[in-house]
Structures are given as structure tokens and as C-alpha cells.
Design brief:
Elements: H1 5-9, H2 11-20, H3 22-33, E1 43-46, H4 54-57, E2 61-63, H5 67-75, E3 79-81, E4 95-101, H6 110-120, E5 121-132, H7 137-144, H8 160-170, E6 173-180, E7 195-196, E8 203-209
Parallel strand pairs: 1-2, 1-4, 2-3, 4-5
Antiparallel strand pairs: 5-8, 6-7, 6-8
Helix pairs in contact: 6-8
């Protein structure tokens, strides 16, 4: 079952996080931008939420099971289709690249979702996945207090190495990484740097290619 309930009933709280943490938000966008492929004809964000990433990154389509979030994404100009990552409502080889941001931890079945994403990407296309590394300082904090968070109490956090294994098992290759968020959120008063690799930043983006 998709974990949509908190996103249906606490939509305003979700939006407020980005308003209260604008520098972290911009830092995450920059980490994604560094790995974006060149000119593309078709792109999709899976778990598009309210469109806060798809809109500024120029992603045209979104998949979202939470109706309240999808409504906001449509207001931001995203063509949103009801659906889940484990059963994407698209034909094979549909997109040049697919994006997923902080949705990984809410998936019911990561392996099935990654296989579906591989299916809908064109040969040579890319999948970009941004997530909080469970082994980072922020990931450990979220894990420790997850029961007190209306969203993360339903989450399963992953370490980068676990994501790598699942991507490779699905059939992706040629992985590249960026990372950002090197301080606690209350300490961030400007845009954080973006570095290649992983292991230091709390927010990691991995780009994987379909053969």
C-alpha cells in the first residue's frame, strides 16, 4: 500500500519545511542539477509530491499517489498521473531520464520500483535518485526520532551502498554521485556546497544509466 496518508493530511506542513529551510532546499536542487543529463525530450519525476523539485528542474511529467500533493504539482505546471513507482503507468522506453527525490524511503518495494524505472527509461537514458543517506549524521537523527515525525514514521532509510546494490541488481550501470548538506539544518544560513561522491553529505544524489 502506498504510504500516502500523511501527505494527504499534512500537505501544508510538507510545504512549510521548504519555506523554513530554503538554503537546504536550494542546495539539494544544486546537487541534482550537477548530474542532470543534457538536452532531453521527455522526463518524469516519480513521487513528484507537490512539484517543488520537478518545476524548477524542468521535469514535465510526474507520478504521484497522494491526491492533495498532485493537485499542488499541477498548479506548478506538472502533468501529474496517479500511480506508484512499483507499477508505472507508462510504456517501455518512454523517458530520457527519470527523477526521484526523497521518495526512496517511502517505497513499498525498492527492487520492483527500480526495475519499473529501468523499463520506462530509453536505452542510454538516466535515473537520478536523491535521498538522505541513513549513515549520515542527518540520516541517523531521522532514524532515531522517526516515530516523532508525521512523515518519517513510515519511512525506511537506506545507506548509499544498499542503494548501489539495488540499482545494479535492476540492471543500471555507470553510477555517479553528488552530495550536499554538511551541517545541521539549523546551522545552514547559506547555500551548501555540492561535492562529488558520497560519505560526507547527508543528501546524496546518484545518477545511474540504462545500458
Amino acid at each position: 500500500m502506498p504510504k500516502v496518508q500523511p501527505f494527504e493530511t499534512h500537505t501544508n506542513q510538507y510545504e512549510e519545511w521548504f519555506q523554513k529551510n530554503p538554503w537546504a532546499y536550494e542546495s539539494e536542487l544544486n546537487a541534482i542539477r550537477r548530474l542532470l543529463p543534457g538536452r532531453v525530450e521527455a522526463s518524469v519525476e516519480i513521487g513528484v509530491g507537490s512539484g517543488l523539485f520537478a518545476a524548477p528542474l524542468g521535469v514535465a511529467f510526474g507520478v504521484e499517489p497522494a491526491h492533495a500533493m498532485a493537485a499542488l504539482a499541477r498548479q506548478r505546471g506538472i502533468n501529474v498521473i496517479d500511480g506508484v513507482a512499483e507499477a508505472l503507468p507508462f510504456h517501455d522506453n518512454r523517458f530520457d531520464f527519470a527523477l526521484m527525490v526523497t521518495t526512496l524511503c517511502f517505497l513499498d518495494d525498492v527492487e520492483v520500483a527500480f526495475q519499473e524505472i529501468l523499463r520506462v527509461i530509453k536505452p542510454g537514458g538516466y535515473f537520478l535518485c536523491g535521498f538522505v543517506d541513513r549513515e549520515s549524521f542527518l540520516g541517523k537523527l531521522y532514524e532515531r526520532y522517526k516515530d516523532q515525525n508525521v512523515f518519517y514514521r513510515l519511512a525506511t532509510f537506506y545507506a548509499v551502498d544498499e542503494v548501489i546494490v539495488r540499482l545494479q541488481k535492476a540492471g543500471f550501470h555507470d553510477l555517479a554521485f553528488t552530495q550536499t548538506i554538511f551541517r545541521g539544518l539549523d546551522e545552514i544560513h547559506e547555500i551548501e556546497p555540492v561535492e562529488n561522491g558520497y560519505g560526507k553529505g547527508a543528501f546524496v544524489v546518484v545518477r545511474a544509466q540504462k545500458p
